[in-house]
Input
Amino acid sequence: MNEHLRTALDLGAAGLPVLPLRVGKVPFGNCRACKGNACGGRPNMKNAGPCRCPGVCHAWAAATTELDIIASPSWAAAWRQAVCVGYHPGGAGLTVVDLDNAEATAWARGALPATRTVPTTRGEHWIYRGTMRSANGVRDGVDIKSTMSYARWLGPGTGTMTTLPDAARALAVKKAPSPIRPAPHSVAVPVRSGNGECRHRTPTYLDRGIAMAEQRITEARSAVHTTVYRTFLAVLSAHGRCGCLTDAHIARLFTAAQAKGESPRHCTDAWANARTQLGL
Output
């Protein structure tokens, strides 16, 4: 039996919803019938319909504890290609504070109560009991993974798991965007100079910038959530106040992010958080 499948079955039996992750530590893409959520989505997704696809579809919403599904023939090909096992923290009543570097870890040690910790490639996962809204880039190198999100399984960790503190919840509140819209939208901000023209950027420069942003997202091999947020932030920093961004530009960025496993909601959250950060 495949090592990742064996791990997934053990975790599922213990009550942790699991899913296979492919190269780049991202979920497998939807099947043709479910592409673009044409099927209505998984039943456990917000505003979703009754999808009955037996495959590994819908990113985090594919996570399950049902052993017959985890070991089913329709998941077999994904397990053969998987590079690791992912899990849905919120589905198990948990929140992961993902600390992506040494500075973020040092901050957490002074700001958050001790809990179970799991070493990662560049930092640590701090795991708490309780759920909250997932949010990316709440601080430099800090993501929150809980509801509607997934985390990589890196082992049980060490230490006693404690209750999710208000200090962690406050991280997402501080970054809370305006009411979420269901689709990308043009940036509506005051124009710095006449007639909405971007005097300091040519159309060619803008197109090149969007292409580079797409490439940065596409080539991300880790910390995809953070990469998407920072890329959105960079694009808005250059063009968010001059009125030159269009729905087509934003859709290209969202499409690149979703190809890496980000959900439409995560894309909208990251875009709104970046606008809030810049005061747009």
Observations:
- The longest strand covers residues 94-99.
- Residues 24 and 132 are 25 Å apart (CA to CA).
- The two ends are 52 Å apart (CA to CA).
- Residues 174-197 have pLDDT under 50 and may be disordered.
